[in-house]
């Protein structure tokens, strides 16, 4: 496609996409704190809501065939699941035969008979067109290194690439442009999942490298060891891949799913290159694995929004501890993925689905929570060892999805006050159980539930916003971009589990504090950091109390900018009250600067941060 063929609107998107392509993150330099004057998240061309679909990995691993995939595709259509949103029919590891001398990848035609061309070559075009003709989208799988996960983890498995060492190098490393042209261009795929075993598992000491089976690369990523990894190299590889995709699909109509399991802080930078990025290791079909993966995404609301989503991995509903015999767990899993805006990629073999499984994955009211157009990820508002409550602000003012979660194998009672949902406790409110459809009034401003073991109650609560004429920043995480997160090399190593910016919690996961007082609402950040908030000229004032998160008085400087112009600046050791006019402002920026000599960073809080209309 040439620029000549683009409509004005699409041309505008193309130019905007190009202008927004970020350079690989510089270290936490002072320049990062300079206002950008704009909301730097790329304009959304796809994945405006979390992608939904199916992937064969959880059910079939590499033992997949075209027939098995098409059987599931048919079921997605015939059962109405496609209409409910499950449109991406993906593929995972195992499809490739080899890379030819001219660099083109050949498809394993024993798996995908329709890929065999009369001239002896192979193409996925017929397969993709078949899915497209069914109203579905098509997804493929590859790796950011030279080799794939099956080659390191399933050494003697079926369906490994064949041929010489070079022919078995089917990953994108060194072939970014050629592969992206083939996948998104010639073959017409809509979605590619890009794994990372190739940069993690092929170090010189590996027996299969020593014996010459595979070539050494890196490792640039050592699992759970950021200190031994090379984050910049990994980020650069994904950035290059994104650039190669942009060149093939300048309209932005594609999905890049980054799959490096939350390593090398992709959780902080994935948003700049992919529409989704994994936040943890592979899920398995058991309760603790599901919770572990959920936790890896649950505190990261400020990193997600339209066009970019935290990915705790595919759904296990219909499998193992989430199968038809475990409907409580299956509903919990689905509820949790829904409330944190996780991509809903089904993983079970759906060719003969159990009715209860179909009911659960097809529950429209639950899907609607996940697919709400505002794109606000749910935030944690209460937590004990066994329970937690998450609130997701829906597009409709005064409407909140609430998940009451029992993580334990025992019954638990749980209560959440309407105030924790930023709803007026004195005004009438209703709540609807999205699994049973039961609706009732909220009494005395408190929502209480007796939860069965492993139960999650998912409710839609409607009331009156607590702020009559405004909104807390914590209610609009999709409109916040963590532009400079304050992570330093030291803090990244010492505090690897911190989330640099969080709603209603400090980066360390502790309660928000300012001036020695606990604050229920606000954004916890690190110094030095800069948040961009998309106002779209909708508001007239910004108010907050800003300060260090603890009372060991460290000097901090707080700055507020409106469209790049300084609106407020104050330095000191005491909390500062900020109340500035923002009428006509598109992008608000919140900067905090100040160093602690020992830790390198300071925990700071924008408490009760709110925008008034
Ligand atoms: C990795 C990914 C999985 C799957 C396998 C395929 O483990 O995280 O989702 O794609 O590779 O080998």
UniProtKB/TrEMBL annotation:
Protein name per the record: Alpha-galactosidase
Signal peptide extent: 1-26
EC id: 3.2.1.22
Residue stretches in coiled coil: none
Similarity comment: Belongs to the glycosyl hydrolase 27 family.
UniProt key word Hydrolase: yes
Native source species: Telluria antibiotica
Domain (Glycosyl hydrolase family 98 putative carbohydrate-binding module) ranges: 484-613
């Amino acid at each position: 496609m040439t620029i000549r063929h683009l409509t004005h609107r699409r041309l505008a998107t193309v130019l905007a996409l190009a202008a927004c392509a970020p350079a690989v993150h510089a270290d936490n330099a002072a320049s990062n704190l300079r206002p950008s004057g704009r909301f730097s998240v790329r304009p959304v061309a796809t994945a405006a809501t979390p992608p939904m679909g199916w992937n064969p990995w959880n059910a079939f691993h590499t033992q997949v065939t075209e027939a098995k995939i098409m059987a599931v595709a048919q079921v997605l259509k015939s059962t109405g699941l496609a209409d409910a949103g499950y449109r991406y029919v993906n593929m995972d590891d195992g499809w490739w035969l080899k890379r030819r001398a001219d660099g083109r990848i050949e498809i394993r035609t024993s798996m995908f008979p329709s890929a065999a061309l009369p001239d002896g070559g192979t193409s996925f075009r017929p397969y993709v067109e078949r899915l497209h003709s069914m109203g579905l989208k098509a997804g493929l799988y590859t790796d950011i290194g030279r080799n794939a996960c099956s080659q390191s983890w399933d050494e003697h498995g079926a369906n490994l690439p064949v041929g010489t060492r070079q022919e078995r190098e089917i990953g994108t490393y060194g072939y970014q442009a050629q592969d992206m042209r083939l996948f998104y261009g010639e073959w017409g795929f809509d979605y590619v999942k890009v794994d990372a075993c190739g940069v993690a598992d092929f170090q010189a000491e590996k027996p299969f490298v020593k014996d010459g089976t595979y070539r050494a690369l890196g490792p640039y990523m050592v699992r759970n060891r950021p200190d031994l990894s090379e984050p910049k190299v990994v980020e650069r590889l994904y950035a290059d891949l994104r650039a190669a995709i942009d060149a093939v699909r300048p309209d932005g109509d594609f999905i890049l799913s980054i799959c490096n399991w939350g390593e090398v802080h992709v959780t902080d930078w994935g948003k700049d290159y992919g529409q989704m990025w994994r936040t943890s290791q592979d899920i398995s079909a058991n309760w603790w694995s599901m919770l572990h993966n959920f936790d890896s995404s649950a505190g990261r609301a400020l990193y997600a929004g339209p066009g970019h989503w935290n990915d705790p991995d595919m759904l296990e509903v219909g499998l193992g501890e989430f199968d038809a015999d475990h409907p409580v767990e299956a509903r919990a899993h689905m509820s949790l993925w829904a409330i944190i805006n996780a991509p809903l990629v089904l993983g079970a073999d759906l060719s003969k689905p159990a009715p209860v499984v179909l009911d659960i994955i097809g529950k429209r009211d639950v899907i609607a929570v996940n697919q709400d157009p505002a794109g606000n990820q749910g935030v944690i508002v209460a937590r004990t060892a066994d329970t937690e409550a998450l609130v997701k602000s829906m597009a409709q003012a005064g409407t909140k999805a609430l998940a009451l979660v029992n993580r334990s194998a025992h019954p638990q009672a749980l209560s959440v006050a309407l105030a924790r949902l930023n709803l007026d406790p004195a005004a009438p409110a209703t709540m609807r159980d999205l699994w049973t459809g039961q609706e009732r009034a909220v009494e005395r401003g408190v929502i209480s539930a007796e939860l069965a073991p492993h139960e999650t109650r998912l409710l839609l609560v409607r009331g009156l916003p607590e702020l009559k004429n405004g909104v807390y920043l914590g209610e609009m995480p999709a409109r916040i971009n963590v532009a400079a997160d304050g992570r330093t090399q030291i803090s990244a190593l010492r505090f690897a589990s911190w989330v640099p910016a969080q709603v209603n919690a400090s980066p360390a996961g502790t309660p928000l504090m300012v001036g020695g007082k606990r604050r229920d609402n606000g954004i916890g950040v690190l110094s030095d950091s800069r948040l961009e908030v998309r106002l779209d000229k909708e508001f007239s004032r910004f108010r907050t109390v800003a300060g260090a998160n603890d009372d060991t008085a460290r000097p901090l400087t707080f700055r507020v900018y409106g469209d790049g112009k300084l609106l407020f600046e104050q330095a000191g050791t005491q909390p500062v009250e900020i109340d500035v006019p923002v009428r006509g402002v598109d992008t608000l920026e919140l900067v905090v600067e100040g160093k602690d000599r020992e830790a390198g960073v300071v925990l700071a809080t924008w408490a009760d941060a709110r925008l008034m209309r």
